[in-house]
Amino acid sequence: MELIAGPPAAYLGADEVVETSAPAVVALAARLGANQAGDPVAFARAAFDWVRDEIAHAGDAGDPRFAVSATEVLADGAGWCYAKAHLLAAVLRAGGVPTGLCYQRLGDGDGHVLHGLVAVHLDGAWHRQDPRGNKPGVAAEFSLDGERLAWPVDPAAGEADLPEVHVAPAPGVVAALRRHELAVAL
């Protein structure tokens, strides 16, 4: 699938959710990048691994909170897929790696839900990454040479990889999380 994105420089800014310049985010980016010798791929891998492994997936952990912004996710230590993607995007952008937000449409019983991912611009191309968190049957890994996402899509079930790489989170996702609705969270 070819991703649809704007110029990489557009994916370095901050907003009220992807808080790239928040002191806690900047400090985490600096700490994760300290041993990477200026290698953006090594930094991106370290940030991905940290968010995937150190921030619990709220559903898996049974955590009732609904963090939305990067700093809320850091403070809670947990978040839904979207929230984890917001934190990872903020940390990567703080470290100079262009990062956007993207989504999958996945089946859920009789309906569908959106699943939140990030896309990083490294080695001259966009690469989707899934910081959701691993568990039995789910193994998402950082990769620049083939996607290793948590969920493969099944087009026959109406599922789809959505190709747009967004600079800011989808407004509907933010609104649903702020209302504490699970309908969009995976």
UniProtKB/TrEMBL annotation:
Domain of life: Bacteria
Organism: Nocardioides simplex
Key words, A-Z: Hydrolase, Protease
Pfam assignment, any one: Transglut_core
Coiled-coil annotated residue ranges, if any: none
GO molecular function, one term: peptidase activity
Name assigned to this protein: Transglutaminase-like enzymes, putative cysteine protease
Keyword Protease: yes
Biological process (GO), any one: proteolysis
InterPro entries membership: Papain-like_cys_pep_sf (IPR038765), Transglutaminase-like (IPR002931)
